[in-house]
């Protein structure tokens, strides 16, 4: 930086460079631990904590810190999607993630339930029951807006300053943002990067112009119609699942495997259950292009693994091929924060980046589960360590999660592949069973995919390493077992637990057939 | 339509308000005519007279806290389904009562008021008389409860 030649002298000290200009002292070294930037009148940083990102992780940390007496500001900004969708405070989960997803999943489940109801004596014509997209969309958006509002009120009550602007680093201690009223520069003792991620678009013609993502589906003006979902991770499956349940023709295009990060046997069962419900799958296919036809439909061309070309028309094409962290937009180089890998995520140690006073939580983190409760928990614990003198650190192991496909898949702990890899087949015992939910009999719902398995150590205390469950209410079923795993659940303990009857969760207490035995895991009958 | 009895005022700017503050009879003037023109679909009835529109905090102070009449303040949000049921109901029930006014506050545009009155959920209704909050309820309630609230305010006014 250029400083007028008069009135300065330059001193070199080990560890940092110091340039003294009149009364101003500028200390410039990003690796210097107790970095202090003083201004002409010797100001301390304006805030104790500035949080970049008003989502699950950011808000949890901000509110906790403020409660502990820190002066906190949160910057949140949503760049509109290519088709112009934007949303309010709360982050991905509240606006375009967990919350609207669960509501639409519920809408689809209710559609199924209506059909089952007739078997239970309810007098109605299931054929006449249709879903109105506009009503569903309105109900979902109303709920989201109410959550946006409550979030803002909460921030206000907890005295956290909310700035609706995109923050970028000017240097390790300064963030700059442009807002409606002008510009703001914020200095802080600590920063937390919690900017999350956004869906990726593939690099094919027509993707950005004609495709949408999960950012758009929950507020889509026109009804989705016949939809192609490109991507078979949990987002793709969940979207295809509820769209199918609402009555739309849904197809999933899979590049390699379904639910790549999950237990593959369970992934296959989920795929089969979705196919049974009418979702079509295109395996090992890659989209080549999207064109708009004169009647406004979309012509999609794709190739399969053998190089054969196909095409079909759809009303909507939804890309769910992965998410990228929004780190590039922060100008992290100005702060000295390093990113790793193609995804440009941040590698942290107890949420601390390579710059000691800059931290990160949530989806921006490298190799950590991208889940709301993980971000919230990590954010809270971090705030307590920074301002409350606490020492508890976040445990990222054994985090339970659920895929809200039409028939849900809940799991906690290791997948079978990882367990076998880590311990070897001789050290692992896998108990498994197919089961029949009582409620499915009357409407004759398919029980072919109601399956669970318990992965445990074969020797010693037979510690349970992982639990996997496919069936209704999988999230509710697995949650309690996540606590059990935290308490070092063992197979004997599980087997000696008396089940609640009739439930689906009790099937975990009834496990007795191992994969090793080769016996048929299908149930003979209930209750014995 | 040149003269109306009003118990409340539709304010579009505060200078107009200060003019009309002490005026019992509303004389037509461009701003008022303009606002009436906007609500022409309601025609020449008194239905619009009871509803106070709040433009800013000063407005609120003048028209609610410093009002001669007791005022029922309805915190409303567009995305709130119960509000869409309660607000019209409130309008309908306060309509015939000349002593009690109704102010509708959109929570999205009045964060300060929301904070001041500790509104945590909508719909929220507070009853203000002589600058004091005398009653409050949250959530959708039946017509009986609203009527009780109105008559409570009305009765006190008459004594």
Structure description:
The complex is a heterodimer of chains A (528) and B (159). In chain A, helix 1 runs parallel beside helix 10 and helix 3 packs parallel to helix 7. Chain A is globular. In chain A, strands 4, 5, 6, 7, 8, 9 and 20 form a 7-stranded mixed β-sheet that branches. Chain A has a 5-stranded parallel β-sheet with strand order 11-18-12-13-14. The longest helix of chain A is centred in the N-terminal third of the chain and has 25 residues. Chain A is an alpha/beta fold and 528 residues long. In chain A, strand 1 and strand 2 form a beta hairpin. The N terminus of chain A is likely disordered. Chain A contains 14 helices and 25 strands. The termini of chain B are far apart. Chain B is globular, with a radius of gyration of 15 Å. Chain B is 38% helix and 20% strand. In chain B, strand 6 and strand 7 form a beta hairpin. The longest helix of chain B has 16 residues. Chain B is an alpha/beta fold. Chain B has 6 helices and 7 strands. In chain B, helix 4 packs parallel to helix 6. Chains A and B meet through helix 4 of A and helix 5 of B. Chain A: Its main location: mitochondrion. Chain A: Its EC number is 1.8.1.9. Chain A: Pfam families: Pyr_redox_2, Pyr_redox_dim. Chain A: Keywords: Disulfide bond, FAD, Flavoprotein, NAD, NADP, Nucleotide-binding, Oxidoreductase, Redox-active center, Transit peptide. Chain A: It is found in: Mitochondrion.
Distance between the termini of chain A: 80 Å
Distance between the terminal alpha carbons of chain B, to the nearest Å? 33 Å
Class computed from helices, strands and strand pairing of chain A: alpha/beta
How much of the polypeptide of chain A forms β-strand, as a percent range?
A: 15-25%
Number of strands of chain B: 7
- Oligomer kind: heterodimer
Sequence stretches where pLDDT stays below 50 over 5 or more residues of chain A: 1-41
How many DSSP helices of chain A? 14
Helix amount of chain B:
25-40%
Record field, number of beta strands of chain A: 25
Helix content of chain A: 25-40%
Largest interface: A-B, 11 and 14 residues
**Structural category of chain B:** alpha/beta
Described by the principal axes of the CA atoms, the overall outline of chain B is globular
- What's the main sheet of chain A like? 7 strands, mixed
* Chain-averaged pLDDT of chain A: 92
Give the radius of gyration of chain A: 26 Å
